[in-house]
Amino acid sequence: MDSIRNFSIIAHIDHGKSTLADRMIQLAGLTNSRTFRDQILDTMDIERERGITIKSQAITLPYRAQDGGTYYLNLIDTPGHVDFSYEVSRSLASCEGVVLLVDAAQGVQAQTLANLYLAMEHDLEIIPVINKIDLPAADTERVMEQIENELGLDPFGSILCSAKEGTGVSDIMEAIVQRIPPPRGDADKPLSALIFDAQYDAFRGTVVFCRVFDGIMKAGQAVRFMHNDTVYRVEEVGRFSLVREKKEQLEAGDVGYLIAGIKNVADVSVGDTITDDRRPCAAPLPGFKEAKPVVFASIYPIASDDYEELVVALEKYKLNDASFTYQKDSSVALGQGFRCGFLGLLHLDIVQERLEREYDLSIILSVPSVRYRFILKNGETVYIENPAHYPESMSIEKAEEPYIRATMMFPEQYLGAVMKLCIDRRGENSHINYPSPERVELQFELPLSSVIYDFYDSLKSLTQGYGSFDYDIIDYRESDLVLLDILVNGEKVDALSQIVNRAVARERALNTCERLKEEIPRQMFKIAIQGAVGGEIIARTTISAFRKDVTAKCYGGDITRKRKLLEKQKKGKKRMKMVGSVSIPQSAFVSVLKSDKG
Questions:
Q1: From start to end of 448-571, where are the E strands?
Q2: 209-261, pLDDT tens digit by residue?
Q3: In Å, what is the CA distance from 189 to each residue of 250, 280, 282, 426?
Q4: What is the DSSP string of 350-378?
Q5: Do 325 and 199 belong together in one domain?
Q6: What one-character DSSP code corresponds to residue 234?
Q7: What is the H or E stretch that residue 296 is in?
């Protein structure tokens, strides 16, 4: 165990985590110049295209230190984007230390602080590294002051490096060996291992990524997953190189993988404890904090025949994304589907794109909603989360919506803008704390429906990425709720219906109509897009028709010839409009979710 080091690289988005991981892999000699490519640990096409890490990746780096010993450094590369911070908490549960990267030009940013607090919660050794020192705008002295004042770390213990050029990378590897403690554990104790990730292999079943804390895991052993209380026989164990590398056994302190013929992806819970079936450990290891979904929407297959494929795809996707939640749902217009929870709009975008790419699905997303409570005149209480099940307005005695207590933290200079945002979203009972100089903790009671729409993105924009947000549901409160229907060419679009407060109904209807106007392609006839509450139209926009030049072939002559052709075209368009049905592109459903402020 003395020769093992388990560590993570954490930082704000775009501070150079994946580039540093690339240099470390090259320094460890795991790849040559012929097989190397940038972002080598980012395996998904979508990660490479967007230049962001979405999935945590693990790899073992052999390293010969200055003291002559050979060490095995288990690196877990983590995402930087706030929507994927749950991936970071999973990775840190398997480590003894972290490399905290800070951009030499940008300095300490919001996720730098958030990730530092996560690392401190896990009681990890922190090595500050100032990256991108080769940039013309680099200011290492200012960044060292920020490391001391804002992070509370020793600035003289920080390492200067340029991951792009490779300078200082060997110093970081040496610091990992010297400063991060080796894992603690006892190979003679009963087996206990934490599952921190898993992925599906079409040939081997589910591949479980785990960190062994005590005991030994080897092929042929019967292991029990404590949360699910299921027993499997281990087929293969090993560690991560650029490909899976089979080993005889994994001992206390090791990070590796386990294959045990687990056919169904839903059988593995990330955060679960693996133990020996014959000699189990006394108690499960503490799992990590579960992520709370912020945006909710329904997913439906475009063709109802693809429903079974969607079920399988969501099961497989759920294994790779612990924060994604889903349950069955149905729609009048779109048939059977699933109600899903997401961490933010980037997360929703990524889920949609991965389902379409990796599982070859064509899906439709509905507008987000929450669960409302209606007390009817006959005394019955009903809970409605799907606008399609909205009760008759005449039968409603009282309508209630869930309220949350939102806690936000951000620098003091943004206080006015954030308070205005909360008041605009019908916030009440505000409470302000100052946990440290220049930082504010603000509490507001807000309707949940005004938070899931685009609140989190607006908060991030107003605070330039420095705002963090958490919430607890407190109770249901009476509200003047109405059902907002969206009509395209006179036909109601079920997936775009929303239950909203009457005060914001017109604003929401106008926003939705404008969004759809941008996304729906023009036709040969006019398309009216309307927002309606009950029988009353409260918003409207029109997509103008294409106009074919039918008079192009008329050279000169009497004007009546041209008029005759135009009248004929007009009649044809009228007939077309009566039978014409408008197909709404997938992008239109997603665009409705995005903030009207852009």
A1: 468-478, 481-488, 491-492, 498-501, 527-533, 536-543
A2: 888 888 888 888 888 888 778 888 888 888 887 778 888 888 888 888 888 88
A3: 14, 10, 10, 56
A4: HHHHHHHHHS---EEE------EEEEETT
A5: no
A6: -
A7: strand 295-301
Q: Which two tokens stand for residue 532?
A: 């309606």
Mark out the alpha helices in 389-521 (DSSP H runs). Answer: 415-424, 448-452, 455-462, 502-519
* 440 and 467 housed in the same domain: yes
Q: What is the C-alpha to C-alpha distance for residues 475 and 201, in angstroms, rounded to an integer?
A: 44
Segment (H or E) for 400: strand 396-411
Phi-psi region of 227 (alpha: psi -120 to 50; beta: other; left: phi over 0): alpha
First to last CA, the chain: 52
C-alpha to C-alpha distance for 272 and 229, rounded to whole angstroms: 10
List, for residues 373-428, the tens digit of each pLDDT value.
889 888 888 888 777 778 888 888 888 888 888 878 788 889 999 999 999 888 88
Residue ending a domain, choose from 217, 245, 276: 276
pTM above 0.85, yes or no: no
Residue 283 lies in a domain: no
Q: Is 499 exposed, middle or buried (0-12, 13-18, 19+ CB in 10 A)?
A: buried
Residue 73: phi and psi, rounded to 5, are -100, 115
Instruction: State the residue range of the domain holding 415.
Output: 372-479
Looking at the 3D structure of the chain, how many domains does it have?
A: 5
Q: What DSSP assignment string belongs to 82-134?
A: GGGHHHHHHHHTT-SEEEEEEETTTBS-HHHHHHHHHHHHTT-EEEEEEE-TT
Give 93-140 pLDDT, tens digit per residue.
778 888 888 888 877 776 677 778 888 888 889 898 988 888 888 888
Side chain identity, residue 355? L
Residue 202 lies in a domain: yes
Predicted pLDDT at 598: 39
Q: How far is CA 193 from CA 37, 203, 240, 271, 276, in A?
A: 33, 24, 16, 10, 10
Residue 144 lies in a domain: yes
Most distant CA pair in the chain, distance = 103
Residue type, 488: V
